[in-house]
Write a structure and sequence with these properties.
By secondary structure, this protein is an alpha/beta fold. It has helices spanning about 15-25, 40, 55-65, 95-110, 150-155; strands spanning about 10, 30-35, 45-50, 85-90. The longest helix is centred in the middle third of the chain and has 15 residues, at about 95-110. The protein is globular, with a radius of gyration of 19 Å.
Length: about 170
């Protein structure tokens, strides 16, 4: 993806993240992380991070139990309206006007002026069987997102027999 001219890489690779970050550093391409605050953790390469603290769901469930409003099997959405659980951190390297635009969009999402779908019916990612841009060893699928990180794939995943991961964007 870097060779194709990507300005930034959104890394969702779990154990493969290290290889993606190394590639971003080597090629001077910033990354956007997820789950944790990568802007704080690796400010030299991270320009933003989609932070999601899943522990908040447990806290909310315990709070509902104490209040007597807990209902087993009930699904509750947690989003930007709970910034302690879900938020976007943005590096100071991003211009202030862009950070302001991002904040305004987030406020519009919380106010429901912008709808963000929570459903996805498409493929999680392309594989070597469906994409000519990513190929793995014969008989094995290679997630499309790992193509840019191939040199680290074997070390990170312990071999080609474990190519699947939650990556869609690296």
């Amino acid at each position: 993806m870097i060779d194709a001219g990507s300005d930034a890489i959104f890394t969702m690779l779990n154990a493969g993240r290290t290889g993606a970050i190394d590639a971003c550093r080597e090629r001077n391409v910033p990354q956007i992380g997820n789950i944790g605050d990568w802007v704080a953790t690796m400010p030299d390469v991270s320009i933003a991070s989609a932070v999601a603290d899943s522990g908040r769901a447990l806290f909310n469930a315990a709070e509902d139990l104490v209040k007597g409003s807990f209902k087993p099997g009930m699904t509750k959405q947690i989003g930007l309206e709970q910034p302690e659980a879900v938020r976007l951190t943005v590096s100071d390297r991003i211009p202030p006007d862009v950070r302001s635009q991002i904040s305004a969009l987030a406020a519009d999402i919380v106010a429901e002026r912008i709808h963000v779908s929570t459903e996805w019916a498409g493929d999680e990612f392309e594989t070597a069987k469906t994409s000519k841009s990513a190929t793995g060893p014969p008989g094995h699928d290679l997630p499309f997102g790992l193509a840019a990180c191939r040199r680290n794939t074997r070390a990170v995943f312990g071999g080609w027999n474990r190519p699947s991961c939650s990556a869609a964007y690296c």
